[in-house]
């Protein structure tokens, strides 16, 4: 009896270690990265739908419409994003790479068309949408993904190339896209595109000094743009003077902090926010993290941060385990972009950064952003299924319930893309080119004719040449007839 109690007590005492071992064993499974990405995308999307309904219902009903109007629109884009997620899982990587530049060119053309009056729609003083029936599509959100995919393909195809081949045409194309987005105007998306471009250059192997120079130049340009327009300079001024004009430029930031403080540790309860009653502008969009803090408390905020931290771990894990250089660059860049956007959003909600207008990925209201981000998550999940261990397990028939339910194709073993051969500069190519025999630096081995005399055999006499390294000397015995012994 005592032994049974002792065993039970020992097992309960070692429960945390046992749980850690179980979690570590689960992470060691071949498809753990894939399941992590699918779980994180699902949890963040569901949380976003719930919080959008809670944060937007009051103002939507007060405006004379349905309390579910914005929620229904967000749910429609979530459905489109789920379809895009599934398409990204089934999309062959070679087809994705082959069509990366044409799709990027189409997205740039869409940025040009949205600036034309009569084609692009104006909302909130900015011309950045295409209104297609009840849906509004923002091409600047699409160009984030196309730049990531095309940039990863371009850099993977130019491994080992000269610095000029790395910078051109990636940097000019990135600057063109940023310029078109600034003209909308949309500084927040410009910052996100700058993060994408810098991540591509960093993971693509740009020298540190040049990378730091480009980054400093980008920060200076962003600062100039932030101070160039009236509403942007007001946001910067409000950040550096939080006590000034509490009913004007500082009103939104102060209300966000009050909302977070009102939530406390446990929160006021789901749907019980006070700030959403027209006290906090854009509570369903840019400042939805403040509503999460008020209704779900500090624990709800930590849950959101934990999900993004787990996403960072999963993204880096996939990038490190991938054999394909294209998938390594794509996964690392996409993880950096999504995580940086989330940190910037949370940073200005809690008062650590100036208000920029970047949305919280998968959580904030915004149909185009939600669908496009889910498509990017689908590409990352596809990269997780192309890890070497995952490919071996799936080809052996060890696919899980999710793969069988979705009827996903079995990934193929990595074979180098035809453009992935490491490029060498012209000087290196000339140096490694085989030289003709007459131009060789090392002299050709000298021919040494064997000592011959009368009666020498034909085999020895027909030997063309002998090596130049020293041969052991053997005395030659001659017969009386003059022949060799």
What would the keywords be for this entry?
20 helices, disordered N terminus, single chain, 3-stranded antiparallel beta sheet, disordered C terminus, 485 residues, globular, 3 strands, mainly alpha
Describe this structure in words.
This protein has 485 residues and is an all-alpha fold. It has one domain (29-406). The protein is 62% helix and 3% strand. It has helices at residues 2-13, 15-27, 32-62, 69-90, 93-98, 100-113, 139-157, 163-167, 170-182, 187-203, 208-228, 230-240, 251-263, 288-321, 325-349, 367-385, 388-395, 401-406, 426-432, 458-461; strands at 121-123, 126-132, 135-137. A 3-stranded antiparallel sheet has the order 1-2-3. A hairpin with a 2-residue loop joins strand 1 and strand 2 (126-132). The longest helix is centred in the middle third of the chain and has 34 residues, at 288-321. The radius of gyration is 32 Å and the shape is globular. The protein starts with a helix and ends in a 24-residue tail after the last helix. Mean pLDDT is 82; it is low at 1-11 and 450-485.
Number of helices: 20
Secondary structural class? mainly alpha
Alpha carbon gap, first and last residue:
98 Å
SSE topology string: HHHHHHEEEHHHHHHHHHHHHHH
Question: What order do the strands of the largest sheet run in, or round the barrel if closed?
Answer: 1-2-3
Kindly summarize this structure in a few lines.
With about 475 residues, the protein is mainly alpha-helical.
